[in-house]
Amino acid sequence: MDEYKFPEDCQYTEEDEWVRDEGQHVRVGITDYAQCQLGDVVFIELPEVGATLSKGASFGTIESVKAVSDLFAPLSGVVVEVNEELVEAPEKINESCYGEGWILVVEPEDPSDVASLMGAAAYREHVDGRDH
Amino acid sequence: MVEFAGFDMPVDFGSILDEHRAVRESAGLFDVSHMGQIFVRGDGANETAEALVSCRVDSLQEGQVRYGLLCNEQGGVVDDVTIYRDAADALMFCVNAANIDKDREWMQAHVRGGARVEDESTETALLALQGPRSATLLASLCDSPGPDGLGRFRFGHFRVAGIESRISRTGYTGADGFEIYLPAAQALAAYEALLEKGAGEGLRPTGLGARDTLRLEAAMPLYGHELDDTTSPLEAGLGRFVKRDRGGFIGSEAIEARAAQGFERQLVGLEITGRGIAREGYSLVADGNPVGTVTSGAPSPTLGHPIALGYVTPDRAEPGTELEVEVRGRRVGTRVVETPFVKPAKAEKKTR
């Protein structure tokens, strides 16, 4: 599984999103594994700032050349920032999924939700189990 | 990797967009060995083929390839195929992978005279070398005169890296290019020789994903999407591959009867003018009313906006007609346009 990146400073969901704790807020994106599976990202539909996310519910869609996928909220909260640059340059998700390709900044309803997500090692195992 | 017709097929080798551009700008190499090759040989081969396909076979010369449709008695499409004239009494049909068994059985059931239907799909591999640099690249691996001298829709026998092959100047991308039929056991050697030779020329291995976006830009139908057992070739816009003046093939009467009644739908090209991508199965709407369905859709890497093929009622089929497509509950603007979306490169049209 050396081909995918699993940064230690993120928590992960089974739906292949990452969450990075930034104090009051968390930043959300899709994982390296997810962007590899999708291939070239060509379109993304994002929520508005102020939208309420409900853990596990779809908050948007991401499209590659070949398919459409839902984006699922890793935790409940309110959207405080949206990466508008992705509208014009969705390929940033392929180029830098943990950096410039971030998707949302969210104010969690319950900050302890972050700790309940998978750590890097657990997520790596989750991906490994699925890839075979 | 995806499983398709019993083969493990790569959707991409990293990036569909990069692979697509390689075929438009230099060259791409597809392994499409899943395609089927069914031969009709012996006494009655011509009569059999003439009865089976929508296009003329009597005028097909040795060394020539033609696109046509196998139709059923209701005038629907059993498969779309290319037909190669090997000899006065021998023809090869290249057929879609998912239809090999159905086609072979259909062909066997309609044999005329003493013709034999022989399925050589398993032992035959097929590589498609596509893109503007294909001719030079392929010639560099063959003795002279090489396949670069072939006109469009012509074929011959050549040795590629020493391997005996049937090569036609045909393809499914709208680019200049070749299809190379060779014994399955030697296909890997030829594949590797081509990739090695082309590495410095921009040649890339290309997968099913790019094959689909390329054929969509060329507005070539894909069986199971634009065509099926109920589709009339005429509503699919394939009338130029139907010998309507001669008839005499299975389904010809039904095709004419349906044409006389008028069609309920017509295949059109669509460009998406709003924000969103039309995908297979999405509804097409005009003035709030359903008027059709998308059969294939994807972003066009060449044009930079999404395109689609779909069936609409004939009154909405005129280029310039504004429609909407329902993209997951949202209506997105789309316009009927002329096809192909991307015109074939100039050099490849001269000898057709």
List its traits.
heterodimer; A: 132 residues; alpha+beta; 3-stranded antiparallel beta sheet; 4 helices; B: 352 residues; 6-stranded mixed beta sheet; 6-stranded antiparallel β-barrel; 20% helix; globular; disordered C terminus
Ranges of chain A where pLDDT stays below 50 over 5 or more residues in a row are none
Give me the oligomer status.
Answer: heterodimer
Strand order of the largest sheet of chain B: 10-11-12-9-3-13
Distance between the termini of chain B: 36 Å
Helix content of chain B: 10-25%
Largest sheet of chain A: 6 strands, antiparallel
> Which regions of chain B have little confidence, pLDDT < 50, spanning 5+ residues?
347-352
Helix content of chain A: 10-25%
Question: What series of H and E elements makes up the topology of chain B?
Answer: EEHEEHEEEHEEHEEEHEHHEEEEEE
Radius of gyration of chain B over all CA atoms, rounded: 20 Å
Structure description:
The complex is a heterodimer of chains A (132) and B (352). Chain A contains 4 helices and 9 strands, in the order βββαβββββααβα. In chain A, a hairpin with a 4-residue loop joins strand 1 and strand 2. Chain A starts with 10 loop residues before the first strand and ends with a helix. Chain B is 20% helix and 33% strand. At the A-B interface, strand 6 of A face helix 6 of B.
How would you summarize the topology of this molecule?
The complex is a heterodimer of chains A (132) and B (352).
Chain A: E1 11-12, E2 17-22, E3 25-30, H1 32-38, E4 41-45, E5 52-53, E6 58-64, E7 68-72, E8 77-82, H2 85-88, H3 92-95, E9 104-108, H4 120-130
Antiparallel strand pairs in A: 1-2, 2-3, 3-9, 4-6, 5-8, 6-7, 8-9
Chain B: E1 2-4, E2 7-9, H1 16-25, E3 27-31, E4 36-41, H2 45-52, E5 65-71, E6 77-87, E7 90-95, H3 100-109, E8 116-119, E9 124-130, H4 134-139, E10 155-160, E11 163-168, E12 177-183, H5 184-198, E13 203-205, H6 208-217, H7 252-261, E14 266-272, E15 283-286, E16 289-299, E17 306-312, E18 322-327, E19 330-337
Parallel strand pairs in B: 3-13
Antiparallel strand pairs in B: 1-2, 3-9, 4-7, 4-8, 5-6, 6-7, 9-12, 10-11, 11-12, 14-17, 14-19, 15-16, 15-18, 16-17, 18-19
Helix pairs in contact in B: 1-6
